[in-house]
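We modelled the chain as a single entity of 199 amino acids. Its sequence is:
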Amino acid sequence: MRIAVLAANGRTGRELVAQAGARGHQVVAVSRRPDPELPASVGADATDPIALEKALQGVDAVVSAVGLVAGSPPDLLTKVATALTAATDRPSIWLGSFGTGASAIKANRPSRAVVKLALGREIPDKVNAERIILDAGGTVVHAGPLTGGPVSRSLRVVPLDQIEGRVWFRPNSRATVAVAMLDAAEPQWPGAGGVAVIR
């Protein structure tokens, strides 16, 4: 497959680029400025649908590692999701946060409290962006707090509706998140077009 990775020069993005290459996929590494350390690096503003359309020519799927950092506009994720869905009709895999949006109902009360404390004003932007991706037929993978480290040996990606009761979130290594998102980009993945949770 030819897979585009948005925010390819971030910590999660670099994991996605490396693992996609290791799987034999052709990678288009998209970031605001070309990064000579990344293969097939393309510079594009992910909030600009025209720039994104040009960067995403000929891809089979788009995997987004776009996240918020200090100084990000309060609606950055919404802008990126809007631009992405306008730029391509290829399958999009979006990184969400467990305990927000569709998965909030599956998080237990302590989890929701921690998520609210940790993400605060970011939550509306995350929820809006997720809704845009889902409405366009994309897949959202919800992860717990991101950490370093190797791929989890107990990795499971569960469709949201298969989680019983209310559960506590688990931290996920970025390497584990990359595996889950790339699995979701495969054409045969059964949970396409919905929300999945890394457990």
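As a brief sanity check on the tokenised model: The longest strand covers residues 26-31. The mean pLDDT is 94.
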